[in-house]
Design brief:
Elements: E1 12-14, E2 21-28, E3 33-35, E4 40-43, E5 47-56, E6 59-73, E7 80-95, H1 104-110, E8 114-117, E9 121-123, H2 125-135, H3 175-182
Parallel strand pairs: 7-8
Antiparallel strand pairs: 1-9, 2-5, 3-4, 4-6, 5-6, 6-7
InterPro entries: YceD
Pfam families: YceD (PF02620)
Protein name: DUF177 domain-containing protein
Length: about 180
């Protein structure tokens, strides 16, 4: 998967390297594209990430904010559009060694936003990717009233609002249904 190739050493923190709280503001410049559910999107500006890690009772609470500019495509007319991402993230990191001490119900309850880490390494990469993906609308539009493309010939109806195709072909398999509607 494409997103698994996205890495940044700036998003990796060693548990032993900070006392109680660590705050960082970083800029990721080497990510050029991100895989979204509907398309691969170009990253148009460096990704700015601010995060805080706080140790509490064998857990690390992570919270942060991600900002960047993406190039998406309008779901109706397919024109490229720019979309500003400004998304927060929160999660709890627990050392995998403590997982075995949790009951099954505690494990299921903790699945909501809990990530287990190994070898004292806390990697926020997936939280940053997740924040970007969650910020993008399911159906990006260039404008709310985008008219899209003609279903027959593909003409952009925003640029040609009076366009009409003369051939309104009906799938031959649906002709019996059309006859029923005419009766």
């Amino acid at each position: 998967m494409f997103n698994e190739e996205l890495k940044s050493s700036q998003l990796v923190v060693e548990y032993e390297k900070f006392e109680k709280i660590i705050e960082r503001r970083i800029i990721i410049r080497n990510w050029k594209e991100i895989e979204l559910p509907a398309e691969n999107s170009k990253i148009l500006s460096p990704i700015e990430v601010f995060f805080i890690l706080e140790k509490r009772d064998n857990q690390v609470y992570a919270s942060g904010k991600v900002e960047t500019l993406l190039q998406l495509h309008c779901s109706r007319c397919l024109k490229p559009i720019e979309y500003w991402v400004d998304e927060n993230f929160d999660s709890i990191y627990i050392d995998r060694r403590y997982e075995k001490f949790l009951s099954k119900s505690e494990q299921l309850k903790s699945l909501e936003n809990t990530i287990y880490y190994d070898n004292s390494i806390i990697d926020l990469t997936n939280r940053v990717i997740e924040a970007i993906i969650l910020a993008v609308p399911e159906i990006p539009l260039c404008k709310e009233d985008c008219k899209g493309l003609c279903q027959i010939c593909g003409v952009d109806l925003n640029e040609n609002p009076n366009h009409s195709c003369e051939t309104d072909e009906i799938d031959p398999r649906l002709l019996p249904l059309k006859k029923l509607l005419e009766k």
